[in-house]
Amino acid sequence: MRPTGKLHLGHLVGALENWVALQKDFQNYHLIADYHALTTNLDTSELYANSIQMLIDWLAAGIDPKQSPVFRQSQIKEHTELFLIFCMLITTSRLERNPTVKEQVRDLKIENISFGHLGYPVLQAADILLYKGEVVPVGEDQVPHVEITREIARHFNNRYGKVFPEPEAKLTKFGRLPGLDGATKMSKSADNTILLSEEPDIIRAKMKKAVTDPLKIRRGDPGRPEVCLVYTYHQKFSTPEVPEIAAGCRSGALACVDCKANAANHIIEYLAPMREKRAYFEKHPAEVESILHDGETRAQKAAHQTMGEVHEAMKLG
Ligand code: AMP
After folding, report:
1. What sign does the dihedral 299-301-302-308 (CA atoms) show?
2. I need a surface site. Which of 10, 131, 284, 288 has the fewest CB within 10 A?
C-alpha cells in the first residue's frame, strides 16, 4: 500500500482484511510503498508521518508484526535493483496498455505521465517477487499489475532459470468499494472516503451526504437496493439485517435518511475495536517505530537472499 495517509474503508475491505486473514496460513510480507507514493506526489515532507499513520491502521486492523514483517520499500535497496533488471524484461507498449494507469491518467488529469509512474507496475513486480510472493491480496485495480508480475516472472525464469513463482491475485468480495459520491472507487484523491480512524460523528455526517437511488426521493417511494451505494455498504457492514433493509427499501417503507443513519451506526460499530487499538499505538510511537525497524531487518534478509539467487541465475558477479 502507498503511504498516502490514514486508510479508508476501501483499503480495509478490498485488501487489508485479506492480509489479516491470510497471515494465519501464509508467511506474509507487508510493504509500505513509499517510492510508489512519488508517482502521484513528489512532496516527501509527509511521507514518513504518513507511513507511520498507515502502519498504525494496519496494526489496528489486526496485522501481527511478529508473524508478518512490515517495512518501507525505500529502506530495502534490493527493490530498486530488481526493478532495474525487470525493466529490461517488459516493453513500454505493454505498460501503456495497463488499464489501471490509464484510469489514473484520466482521473487525475495527468497530461504527461512520468517514466516512473508508467513503470510502477514493474517496481510492484519487484516488490512481490523479491519475497517470492505466491498470493497477492489486492483490490481489483491492482489485478492487471499482478498479471504483469506473472509475465515478468515467466520471462525471467525462461531466460535465466527458475527463481520466481508466478503469483496470483486474491480478491475479497468487495474488490472495488464505491465512494460516498457514488464513484466506482472509494479513494483519497476523489475525496469520497470514510477513514478507518474517523470519529463517529464525522461518519454520521458523511453518510448523510452519501448518494442513494436517484428515483427514491421521499419515504414511500419504492427504491432499488441494487443501484444504491448505501445498500452496498449494508451488505458489508450490516450483514444480518440485509434482507430486511432490502425489503424496506423496495416497499418504500424505509426512508433513505434512516437507512443511512443505520449504515453509519453499523460502520461505527465495525470500526470500534480498531479505534481502540489505534488509540493505543498513537500513545506508543516508540513501539510502532521499533515494529517497523524489526520488520525492515527481517525483510532485508529475505530480499538479500533472493537477490543472491538472481545474481547467480544471471551469472552477475
Ligand atoms: P493504494 O492506496 O493504491 O496503494 O491501494 C492499496 C490497496 O488497497 C490495493 O490493494 C488497492 O487495490 C486496495 N484498494 C484501494 N482502494 C480500494 C477500494 N475503493 N476498494 C477496494 N480496494 C481498494
Report:
1. positive
2. 284
